[in-house]
Amino acid sequence: MYEAVARDLCKKVGELISVIAPGSNLELDLCASITGCGLTRLAGTTNQKTKRPVRLEYIHGTPLDLAKQCENAPGANQRGIRFKHHSNDNDKTIMKKRIEQLQGLAKLRDYDLTGKRELFAYIYYSTCIGAGYDDNTAVNMTLKMNERFGSPLRGKEVTRIACRKPYKLTNARIIDDLAISEDEQRSLGTVASDQTPGTGRSRNRNAKRDAARRDQKRKRDETIIALWEKLQSINKAAKDAGVAYGTVKKVLKSAGKIA
């Protein structure tokens, strides 16, 4: 959702640049701007890609409520996530139970989380924050969990993951992102369901939502592949599709287009 909001903001900024300063050498680095590190780039440093110094053009005094932007962005509910505000006692109890379930999932997989390490660490960190732990405690808990991985992430990678804004994810989203099988769901119990027993109607609604999400992802991937085949450039395909360089590369690898 963060990337969706950032892409929309970048698009508007790009339109403003073309109107306000046509023909200038000002340009928008979309791939960098939709990541947290790109948005916190400091004036006076150097862009390693272009080898040009970063300069501060303008500061406005109006604070940006990114939480509100995320909640009001199109498709926020369909993606099954919402911006993390404050947890009440019931939320904290649910999140503490989820921590145990995530630990159980890692144990079921013999701590082999190849291909899911970064995502698992982010979900685990976000869940610790949702359970009411402070940031330092949540980071330390995530580092300890990472140490159990068969192939642990580097400490600085875990710290970088913890710099991202924590989100409250639905069970359905976690199951989808971590590819939790039905057998694993049965072993873990409530991880497979929402916090309250689902009715037939809610299950149908969730199934339709998940199907719509998969269809949306399939269409996005097809668009990315078509752009890459036409442009023969990952950077250009990423720019035209409005996604990050890494997303294009991941889609092409999954499709067997690149090694």
Keywords for this structure?
259 residues, mainly alpha, two-stranded antiparallel ribbon
Please give a structural write-up.
- With 259 residues, this protein is mainly alpha-helical.
- It has three domains: 71 residues, no CATH class; 114 residues, no CATH class; 53 residues.
- It contains 13 helices and four strands.
- The strands form two sheets. The protein has a two-stranded antiparallel sheet with strand order 1-2.
- A hairpin with a 4-residue loop joins strand 1 and strand 2.
- It is globular and about 60 Å long.
Topology:
Layout: H1 2-20, H2 30-33, H3 36-39, E1 46-47, E2 52-53, H4 66-72, E3 81-83, H5 89-108, H6 117-130, H7 135-147, H8 155-162, E4 167-169, H9 171-177, H10 182-188, H11 200-231, H12 234-241, H13 245-254
Antiparallel strand pairs: 1-2, 3-4
Helix pairs in contact: 5-6, 6-7, 6-8, 7-8, 11-12, 12-13
**Overall tally of domains:** 3
The percent of residues in helical segments reads 55-70%
Side-by-side strand order of the widest sheet: 1-2
What structural class results from the helix and strand content?
mainly alpha
**Total helix count?**
13
Q: How far is the N terminus from the C terminus?
A: 28 Å
Per DSSP E runs of 2 or more residues, the count of β-strands stands at: 4
Q: Can you tell me the residue ranges where pLDDT is under 50 for at least 5 consecutive residues? A: 73-86, 191-199
Biggest β-sheet strands, sense, barrel: 2 strands, antiparallel
Strand content: under 5%
Q: Using the CA coordinates, give the radius of gyration.
A: 20 Å
Q: SSE order in H/E notation?
A: HHHEEHEHHHHEHHHHH
Averaged pLDDT? 75
Shape: globular
